[in-house]
Amino acid sequence: MARILQPKARDPAARDQGARANEARAYVTLDDLLRLNHRAKGFSFLPKQPVHSLLAGRHASRLRGRGLEFEELRHYYEGDDVRAIDWRATARLGEPQLRVYTEERDRPVLLLVDQRLSMFFGSRGAMKSVVAAEAAALAAWRVTSLGDRIGGLVFSENGMDEVRPHARQAAIGPLFEAIIRRNGELRAEDPRPSDPSLLNAALARVPRLLPHDGLLTLITDAAGADAETVRLVTEITAHNDVLTVFVFDPLEAELPDIGRTVVADAGRQIEIDSSASGLRRGFAASFAERREAIEGFSRRRAIPVLPLSTGRDTADQFRELLGRRLARTATPGRPMSAVR
């Protein structure tokens, strides 16, 4: 992913001020992630969703959530759900008997947090790597507040960190430390190209950390996703739920006409003319193709996709996406197509 550094501004002071503004949202700190604890409210990754939630309804999601554990067999009382009657026990005992279940409270949730060089990009608000870190923190706080276990795989060109799913105190600290370390290692002047194979390398480790009955949450820009990615995710969905948080920057979708601009990629810099209509069309088409590939595969596997923009507050977007009804198009089988 090429990184747009600065337009060729005439005023050096304005250019320096813009660079400082961008730098302020280039990295996250432990305090940033801890403060999100108070904002991790108003959304859930469970199937029981508000009617307008992205995850509500069988057409938008196949999330099964936590399982049920048998607790006891008791007498049937008026008003009980007749569907819970145990007919064999009723016949044996001669009076209606009800099976009572409790919801499991320790479902494992694994966060796959992308901190590759392709994520070190942002034209407004924050870098994609920062939004991914914030999304992971919000998910971790919310999941643990509901009694589930949290773990993570944080990956970048500098390494990969595994945190096995544990209860709140045992997992959040190591998970946040891994995110902050990998996030802090990102540098715009890094001469290496972003490694697309790392996404599949991280996915290949998932079954060891999340063997069954869990939720895998992918937080990534999906750079490098290919047929092997599809195969790995398909295998994971056989025994677990999967949710994709697709992080993008508005400039990726539409390159603005800002004249001559300096672009950097893998330590190289080139000046381009962003006013060229052909260049802007090609830029937009490349992003649209990547996004359509993600959403198309997700539709076929009934995997929800939550698109997060770097241009808006992460917590606000979570609440909106998990609390509103999709504006569906008339095309059948495309429940995600209206999300922007």
At a glance:
The protein has 340 residues and is an alpha/beta fold. It contains 10 helices and 11 strands.
Structure description:
Helix 4 (128-145) packs antiparallel against helix 5 (168-184) and helix 6 runs parallel beside helix 7 (227-237). The chain is built from ten helices and eleven strands. The chain is 36% helix and 22% strand. The strands form three sheets. The protein has a six-stranded mixed β-sheet, sandwiched between helices. A three-stranded antiparallel β-sheet has the order 1-9-10. A two-stranded antiparallel sheet has the order 2-3. The protein folds into two domains: 3-63 and 105-321, 3-Layer(aba) Sandwich (Rossmann fold); 68-103, no CATH class.
State the end-to-end CA separation.
21 Å
Walk across the major sheet and give the strand order.
Answer: 6-5-4-7-8-11
CATH class of the largest domain: Alpha Beta
- What value does the Rg take, in angstroms? 23 Å
What is the CATH superfamily of the largest domain? Answer: von Willebrand factor, type A domain
Looking at the structure, the CATH topology of the largest domain is Rossmann fold
Number of helices: 10
The overall number of domains is 2
In which range does the helix fraction lie? 25-40%
**CATH architecture of the largest domain, please?**
3-Layer(aba) Sandwich
Helix-strand string: EHHEHEEHEEHHEHEHEEHEH
Q: Write down the overall geometry.
A: elongated
* Strand proportion: 15-25%
Give the oligomeric state of the chains in this entry, treating copies of one chain as homo and distinct chains as hetero: single chain
> Pairing-aware structural class of the strands and helices?
alpha/beta
The profile of the biggest β sheet is: 6 strands, mixed
